[in-house]
Predict the 3D structure of the following.
Amino acid sequence: MIKKNKMPQTFNMPLPAKLARLWHENAAYTHDAIKDSLNGNPGVARTWARLLQNQYDIAGALNDDQITSDWLEKHVNILMELLGTVKDRKKDVYQSALKKLTANGAGLVSYWNTHFNGVRNTALPSLIKRYIDLTLYEIDQYWKGVQNRRDDAALKQAINGYDQAVDTAYDIAAILTTLVTKGTSMPVGGAVF
């Protein structure tokens, strides 16, 4: 069981920068979890713990610890299940985990769109879906690279998926900042920390 920590005091930065940093870290930690899981790295438990803590930190930054934490924790658990099925080549279990991951993302977006001051954002569902799709693409390409004895083309495609996930993460951070701050305008694309 992974222990939930409070957000570090060093996170006394403006909300846009905080969310941009946390979502960038989310993409990086997800990337590390994919690599460590598919390579059988013995330190993979620490990688998953770091990703899960990042999810708690995102919920804390949104001042919505419990409900968002539950959704994001479920997301990490489904992702762990999904990566286990990739290595075991259980296609039916993979498809089931894939459906759960997509449904969980849609549920979280629905919750966010109703929870934060009644402000709705129509771009958020497609961005979360894109983020999940890019994560799945990265898994697929990275696994091809590992299976084919370091297929450089597949590994480059995995990195490309990661780079696009980072860009999408910044867009998600910008929209969440807008939702949390009662719809105050903030441009999507190019949030910087």
Q: What stands out?
A: The chain has six helices and no strands. The chain has one domain: 14-180. Helices lie at 15-39, 44-61, 65-88, 91-115, 123-147, 152-180. The radius of gyration is 16 Å.
